[in-house]
Amino acid sequence: MNTYSSKLLENSVNELSKLPGIGKKTALRLALHILKEESNYAESLGSSIIELRNKIQYCKTCHNISDSEACEICANPKRDHSTLCVVEDVRDVMAIENTGQFNGVYHILGGIISPMDGIGPSDLNIESLIRKVSEDNTNEIIMALSTTIEGDTTNYYIYKKLSHFNIKITTIARGISIGDELEYADEITLGRSIINRMPYENSLSEERF
Amino acid sequence: MNTYSSKLLENSVNELSKLPGIGKKTALRLALHILKEESNYAESLGSSIIELRNKIQYCKTCHNISDSEACEICANPKRDHSTLCVVEDVRDVMAIENTGQFNGVYHILGGIISPMDGIGPSDLNIESLIRKVSEDNTNEIIMALSTTIEGDTTNYYIYKKLSHFNIKITTIARGISIGDELEYADEITLGRSIINRMPYENSLSEERF
């Protein structure tokens, strides 16, 4: 006989186990949980998934996930539209927004250059970034990508592509994390943080003092 | 502004994070994964969840999850309907079925007696078990519950309820797991396994010899 006593159960376990990090056992636990809950939970969970995929839009300006043609950030006139923060994906936008320290707008690449995964510059939203910079009144581009080889490669590629425009290109600061102890920091980070030392006054953040 | 740039995204993250073991961060990862996949995946995942909850039935005889009034096991005339294996939930049925060592039928309690969680005998399918035993031609009841205090309590409660019927009541064997080393076994298990020692011939399983 079939391991699952029900085709319906088997079907939903199969679908759930296609999600990243969810194996058959976890999928079964989730399916049994859904069965135990009120039926309106299954209804709202299921329809929220279907609606999400069918109705979602991507902002025409920054490629952020949005409910309309322009995302809330790009549509906000109070944001500084001359400062562009280049990030890998939507989660990075959320992370930076949560800091409350950035008032510019974003440009989402949709990934980083990674030859190992077969992702080249043409797979990313780099063309539209260059077009935006050439057409709009951009003062500064802040590169906020992962500090990995792939992130550095992407940084360099974009830097080269934009170097003939008269704009400031910066990267987010790299160094010792706040709260970290020096003896546990890796050599490269520590070495670079000595080379790129900064005026003491800059380290006096509002939060701490 | 809202942390999520889209209400649709926020909504599905909220629904997904109601699942056990899935927090907001994981839910966001799952939602973004669903967005990256073809739209028919979202469709089949979402509708499988809704269908599961709306169309599922429980076997009238054993309370197993089923697509019809009688589950595949209870409907199978080749199974030994006079041997009843009492288990906590559906997952236990699957686990025992996977061993291929049991040809009887099941009775699913839907939980175990756990005063700490407010679960008493009346919350479980115990009445229907007693009715089944009194009406049908049952020879043996195998108690296959967890070897915890709650499991033991439930075992004892059911044992008392069934003791005036002329049937054999057994529990699954408890002892040292196959492949375990003695020095790491806990004292209670080891102590009991000496008291409940069994003829050597019984330990010669087909699989190993």
Write up this protein:
2 copies of one chain form a homodimer. Chain A is globular and about 65 Å long. Chain A has 2 domains: 7-55, RecR Domain 1 (Helicase, Ruva Protein, domain 3); 78-206, Dna Topoisomerase Vi A Subunit, Chain: A, domain 2. The first copy, chain A, has helices at 7-16, 24-36, 39-55, 90-99, 127-135, 149-162, 187-195; strands at residues 57-58, 65-66, 80-87, 104-108, 140-143, 168-171. Chain A has a 4-stranded parallel beta sheet with strand order 4-3-5-6. By secondary structure, chain A is α/β, with parallel strands linked by helices. Chain A is built from 7 helices and 6 strands; from the N terminus they run αααβββαβαβαβα. In chain A, helix 1 (7-16) crosses helix 2 (24-36).
What's a concise summary of this model?
Chain A has 209 residues and is an alpha/beta fold. Chain A has helices spanning 7-16, 24-36, 39-55, 90-99, 127-135, 149-162, 187-195; strands at 57-58, 65-66, 80-87, 104-108, 140-143, 168-171.
